[in-house]
Specification:
Length: 212
C-alpha cells in the first residue's frame, strides 16, 4: 500500500469551507475527506468532531488580509480610485465572513468570535488591526492633501460600517440586485462605488488642491 496522502490543517480547512459553502453544513465529513484524498478519521483526529471542523472552517479569520495593502499606501494613483479598490476587497472579506457565520448560525453551532476578539497574548484583534490600518491610511492621504481634513477614526468607522452593513442586509434580507455568484460580486461592487461617491463629496480634496 502507498503511504496516506499528507495534508495540512490549512488545506483541510480550505477544502471543508468550500464544501460547506457549496453543499451546506450537512455535507458528510466523509465527502470532504474524499475530496482531500484522506480518511474521515484524519479530519476527526485533527479537529475532534464534525462540529469542530465546521467552526474551524467557517468562523471569522484571525488575520485580516487587507491590512498589508493599506499599510503600503496611499501610492501615486488618484486616492478615490485607491479607496474604491480597498473598499471592494474589504467588502468581499465581509461577504466571505458573513457567509460562514450565517451557515454556522443555521446549523445551530456554537462558535467563538474568531478575529473579532483578541487572542491570548495579542495586543489587538484582527478587527482592531484592520480598523487602525484604515485610520492610518486615511491620515496619510490627508497629509498628502489628497483627502479633506476630517476625523479619520469617524471616517474609518463609517466606511467599515457601510461595507459590513451591506453584507448583513444582503445576507439577512436580500437585495433587488443581490444574487449568488457573479451577480453578488457585481451588486457588492456597485454598493462600494455608491458609498465612496456619497462620501467623496465631503472627504474629497478641497478646491485648489490637486488630488494625489
Amino acid at each position: 500500500m502507498g503511504r496516506p496522502r499528507a495534508v495540512t490543517d490549512e488545506q483541510i480547512i480550505a477544502a471543508a469551507r468550500r464544501c460547506f459553502l457549496d453543499r451546506g453544513a450537512g455535507v458528510p465529513a466523509s465527502e470532504i475527506a474524499r475530496d482531500l484524498g484522506v480518511s474521515h478519521t484524519t479530519l476527526f483526529n485533527r479537529f475532534g468532531s464534525k462540529e469542530g471542523l465546521l467552526v474551524a472552517a467557517l468562523e471569522p479569520p484571525r488575520e485580516v488580509p487587507w491590512v498589508e495593502a493599506l499599510e503600503a499606501g496611499p501610492d501615486g494613483r488618484p486616492v478615490r480610485d485607491q479607496l474604491v479598490e480597498h473598499a471592494r476587497v474589504i467588502s468581499a472579506f465581509y461577504a466571505e465572513m458573513e457567509a460562514g457565520l450565517s451557515l454556522l448560525r443555521a446549523a445551530g453551532v456554537e462558535h467563538g468570535s474568531g478575529g473579532c476578539t483578541r487572542g491570548e497574548g495579542e495586543a489587538e484583534s484582527a478587527a482592531e488591526r484592520g480598523y487602525h490600518a484604515l485610520v492610518a491610511w486615511l491620515e496619510r492621504a490627508q497629509r498628502q492633501e489628497s483627502l479633506a481634513i476630517c476625523d479619520s477614526r469617524t471616517l474609518a468607522s463609517t466606511i467599515l460600517g457601510a461595507l459590513h452593513g451591506w453584507t448583513l442586509t444582503a445576507t439577512a434580507c436580500g437585495q433587488g440586485d443581490h444574487a449568488e455568484g457573479a451577480g453578488a460580486c457585481d451588486a457588492g461592487d456597485r454598493h462600494v462605488e455608491r458609498v465612496v461617491d456619497l462620501l467623496w463629496h465631503g472627504i474629497g480634496p478641497r478646491a485648489g488642491v490637486v488630488p494625489g
